[in-house]
Amino acid sequence: MPQCQQVRIDIVAAILWLWGFKGHRPDRWDVVGAAVCLVGSAIFMFAPRGA
Fold it and tell me: Model-level pTM?
């Protein structure tokens, strides 16, 4: 599995763990932080390679 896909799975799993097992519903800032991380990993994933 490529590294960027693993990062996305880790981010989603962390949010689900927070909500499902710890009982803390993610607030707006948790969602914004996760979205920023997902956008960052998408930049790495879809960046042009080679010249």
Answer: 0.68
